[in-house]
Each structure stands twice: as structure tokens, then as C-alpha cells.
Give the backbone structure.
Amino acid sequence: MKIVRKYFNKIKNFQKRNSINDGPDLEPYWDEKFAYLLETWGTGNVWDEIQYFFVGRNGKVLDIACGTGKTIEILSKYKSLEIFGCDISDFLIEKAISRGINEENLSVCDATHMDYENDFYDYSYSIGSLEHFTSEGISLCIAESFRITKQISFHTVPVSKSGKDDGWIKKTQSYYNNSTDWWLRKFQLSYKTVIVLDSRWQDEISNGKWFVCIK
């Protein structure tokens, strides 16, 4: 885990030297209060929606940036799915293990460079994660999801209510608040077929969108 933190310290130092303003806030991923927030934030919206996507499906699924494993726990009702998770934070992975998720199904890794074999998973998804990556990191993570997934990858992110590309902004965490078209271009770098669906998640400046990426 020290290697992962060292890697992101190098990114931050590079950004500082070159006046680059977008970069991940890593500190919350080792914070107890943030871990508690991850247990509640998707209630009534994205956690319901991800269940609809997996009705009647079977096979191996990867939760990219799985955090405390809350979504994996929710999807565990589908016995035809074997669900795995990865996250950059060993602290959050330990939380997932403590809730009863099989340790062998969990991995600490950088989602922009995953160790899984090509087409190892039938499906993959990320929920409210990609917007916290650098612009380059977003493209790399989407490319990785394409590489490791056989069929469909589902991703939900906030998009700006204004329809403008607000860029890298700071609220509770720093993230991209950009237009649907900006995100669509990112996904289409890897996927030819991308379907955009509305999510019920929203806040005062953003609406949630699902990008359903079909390989």
C-alpha cells in the first residue's frame, strides 16, 4: 500500500510543479468519517439502479473502486453472480472484509492499471468514482474496464446541470463537474456503443448519469 501512496504523491508533486489543478484527494480514503458516508450516500438512487442492471445476469462482476463493499453486499442477493471488488485504499478494503465479503474476492490496486487478465470479468461497474480521477486517469480507467470486461461496463458519474464543462471543482472532495458530452467523449475513446441513462441521484449543481458501455 505504501507503493500506491508513493505513486500518488509523485502525481501531486508533478501537478504542483506544473500548476496542474486536477488531482485526486487521497486523504478521505483513509478517513473513518468518509467511510461512514460511503455506507449511506447511494440510498434511494444509485444502489437501487445498479440492482436493476443485474437482474437475470450471471457471471463474474468487478466493482471498480468498491470502497467499503456496500454495493457488493447489496448485489449479493443475486446468487448467479460472483462479485469482486478493488480499491486503492487498504483501509476501505479492510472495511469490506469486516462486513463479511470474501477477502479472496477483494484487491488493493490502482484502477488505472489493474492486474486482471483480458476479459476476466463478464461485467464491471463503478459508482460515483471516475469523476475523482485526473483527466488522464479517467481515460486510463475506462480503457482498463474495456480490457478486463467481456460484455458490459456500467459507470455512473455526476454531470453539470448547466450543461457546461465546469472542470475540476472543490466541494467535499475535488471532482470533475462536466457536461454529458464531455463524459461521452471519454467513454467513446474505448467503447463504440455507449448508452446514457438518467440516475435519480442529484445535488444542487449536478445530475447523475449512467454510461452503459457495451463491448
About this structure: The CA atoms of residues 12 and 23 lie 7 Å apart. Helices lie at 2-17, 32-37, 46-53, 70-75, 90-98, 135-148, 180-188. Residues 2-17 form the longest helix (16 residues). The beta strands are 59-64, 81-87, 106-108, 121-127, 149-160, 168-170, 174-176, 193-202, 206-214.
